[in-house]
Design brief:
191 residues; 7 helices; mainly alpha
Length: 191
Amino acid sequence: RRPSPVEDARELSRRQFGAHAERYVTSRDHQASESLDRLLALLFFLVLLFFLASFIWGTTWLAIKFQLGIVAPEVSVAWRFGLASLLLVGWCLLRGVSLRFTARDHGRLALLGFLLFGLNYVLVYRAEQHLASGLVAVVFSFLVFWNLLGARLFFGTPAPPAVALGAVLGVVQVALGLQIINNSLRTLGVL
């Protein structure tokens, strides 16, 4: 059997530098192995988070589709974000996060909530009544650009290049996913 490169390095270091060097090389191999294990665990965790976010976001559109027609979109949105608010308040209480803000900040937060989670989602629910959910999802993904613009206009916060690139890649990913599904359905003769 031919020795591996690691075994070759150990033998060479033992001949040249003695037992101390062999312990050093063995220690470095162990550190590299641990680093690789940590990197693989992190990669697995990131992939898991990606699929979890994709699953949650994807089923959101399905849930909207099922809600349509049962109650008015405004009622659905009120229930959805009312429950989400209660969960968020519970999480903050559990973690000890203060929810004390100035009256001015409360006003700003209320306006933000109304525009970003109230009016915005009512319009999305209304759009879902007339358009395919995939198309609505693509259009909705452009919201990230409005958020970046709003952050710039209202808070003077410039968009970091990595965030802008991420926004572009996110919209492209949603559009490509929709195109792949569309092409698959045409190939199967469904469309």
